[in-house]
Amino acid sequence: QRVLNQPNPPRFVPIIAEAVLHNQVGRDPRILRAQVLRLAEVARFDHVELRILPKMASEYLALTTSYALLSLRPPGRLTASVVDQITGSIFVEDEAKVAVHEKTFELLLSATLSRSASLRLIERVASQT
């Protein structure tokens, strides 16, 4: 969160499955509401393009596990993928493997709601919790 709030922050394009907006952790529903409201707040940042993968597109979730694509430009072009696992993270720098992760991300992104529709859904869920 510090990175997203710093001066000159990076562009951030997270994809979140719609079901996550309804996953209550613990017994206090106010925690879920606060988390969803925070997502709505961050989704309004100019440098954040939070996108929701709707329930009707959940078959795409079978394509991947959680990972992040990091693109560092300029001065050179470097893109790496960081794959999350239970025991830690794996940094993938092999160009062919990173290309597969980039294609998978683009496929997932194509199945998401638009940026504005994602924000509307997040706000609707927040108002119902």
Brief overview:
By secondary structure, the protein is of the alpha+beta class. It has 4 helices and 5 strands, in the order H-E-H-E-E-E-E-H-H. The strands form 2 sheets. It has a 3-stranded antiparallel sheet, with helices on one face.
Q: Which geometry do the CA atoms define?
A: globular
- Helix/sheet category: alpha+beta
> Uncertain spans, ≥5 residues at pLDDT below 50?
none
Instruction: Please give the order of strands in the largest beta sheet.
Output: 3-4-5
Measured on Cα atoms, how large is the radius of gyration?
16 Å
Estimate the strand proportion.
Answer: 15-25%
Write structural notes for this entry.
This protein is α+β, with helices and mostly antiparallel strands. It has 4 helices and 5 strands. A 3-stranded antiparallel sheet has the order 3-4-5, with helices on one face. A two-stranded parallel sheet has the order 1-2. Strand 4 and strand 5 form a beta hairpin. Helix 2 runs antiparallel to helix 4. The longest helix has 17 residues. The model has no long low-confidence stretch (mean pLDDT 88).
